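Recap from last week: sequence in, structure out.
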Amino acid sequence: MLQRFVLVTGTCLLTFVAVMAPAQAAPPSATAPVVRVCPPVDPPDSALLIPLGDSATQFGECSNGQALRLPCPDGLIFDIDRSVCNFPDRVRQAPTQTTAGNARLDATGRKVTGLTATVTWRGKPLLDAPVHFTTVSGARLCDAFTDDSGHASCDAGNAAQGADQLLRGYTASYDGTKNLLPSNGKGTVTRS
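Predicted structure tokens:
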């Protein structure tokens, strides 16, 4: 479907036209329901604008459960508090939270699987946030981006660190942007 978007920033009026894909149904889950970045049904009286984890100069507009990536005009960044593009000196960075899960170390002591993290802002999932997974001493394991539920995961094959260091756990870090503060979380690693 064809959608028209209007964004007012200061004295600028911008109109965007984009082709929107229908939302895909989420797979059924036996666990708690997954919170998504965009609701499956649009709010009736206003556009829902969201920050994107990899860029302060872009934002997402929700439409039928999907986030459409839109740019701010040159020199402006997305103001999360006001849901508009604004001058950088007028934008306050919003807090984020990163939580990490439990990963598994294989029998060889060299491969870590299931490194996971969830990044949120004000309790809501953060889309497209780059997450860096490292050992607790800072050695790089792998990198991933968050999906529409704020979840990122990756595996670290042939880890150069010894099993003892890997079993001390890992850190999942989000570096933040000009409108989102950085955060990190600690995860555990257990033997398979």
